[in-house]
Amino acid sequence: MAEADAIAAVDEPVTVSSLVDDFQDLGLARGDTILVHASLQELGWVCVDAQVVVDALMQTITPAGTIVMPTHSAQYSDPANWSNPPVPESWIETVRENRPPYRPETTPTRGMGAIAECFRTYPDVQRSAHPVYSFAAWGQDADSIVADHAFDDGLGEQSPLSRVYDHDGSVLLLGVGYEPNTSLHLAESRADIDLPSFETCAPVLEDGERVLRHYIDLEYDDSDFGTIGEAFEAAHEVGRGTVGAATAITFSQPEMVEFGVEWLEKHRE
């Protein structure tokens, strides 16, 4: 959304206080555990940047609850598999050998949006150790949600997604559809479906030294997540509202995961 379009999309600037009101009208409350996927540009003209959204979420949920966001860093996936765009084959080993190690405190996100990138930098935000599929969390249960994030099957049973499930958390889709709903990757991991696996590696820090960690990744597939989301809405109650100029959707994460497992086992070949 161009800035002129963002101004035209709202009657007044989107502020921390207006967002808090919108979040509360949507049903978010003090003490919630909420997994957030968000697009800043869909909110209209925000006064003045992503930190307004982060501040508003923190004021709404408070430290008595927990905010979680995906902070993935796809630049640490295998460069041999990059396709948008691919790198020349002659570069692949150079990239593998020269990437600095993944560091939760400093490694930037990639493709996660301005809000998640801003959120990960806040004081007291904790980030998990997976070099590709990290999550950041703030609040009451932040430490337990991001701790012990397994390298193998990084969106599966030993991931922050599973910990949000254990805490009976909710999902907030803020200005985005169901396609980026990472909780359905947990459903993929749990479902009895053919999900191919492969060995990969990434550089990480261990005892202050750069080491190359090999692990098993799965070929996650989000191509049908929009369809699953529509089917979920037809069968379950979701919260819908407007936050700024954006459409916002909230729902139970465990209900979505359980529905996703059943749907995938029935429909995905």
Total of domains: 1
In terms of structural class, how would the helical and strand content be classed? alpha+beta
Q: What is the mean pLDDT?
A: 96
N-to-C CA distance: 37 Å
Level of helix content? 25-40%
Q: Strand arrangement, largest sheet?
A: 3-4-2-1-5-9-8
Shape: globular
Q: How much of the residues is beta strand, in percent?
A: 15-25%
CA-atom Rg in angstroms: 19 Å
Largest sheet composition: 7 strands, mixed
The number of E-state strands comes to: 9
- Catalogue the unreliable spans: none
Number of helices: 10
SSE series: HHEHEHHEEHHEHEEHEEH
Short description:
The protein contains ten helices and nine strands.
Q: Can you walk through the features of this model?
A:
With 269 residues, this protein is an alpha+beta fold. The chain has one domain. Helices cover 33% and strands 20% of the residues. The chain is built from ten helices and nine strands. The protein has a seven-stranded mixed β-sheet, sandwiched between helices. It has a two-stranded antiparallel ribbon with strand order 6-7. Helix 2 crosses helix 3 and helix 8 packs across helix 10. The longest helix is centred in the C-terminal third of the chain and has 15 residues. The model has no long low-confidence stretch (mean pLDDT 96).
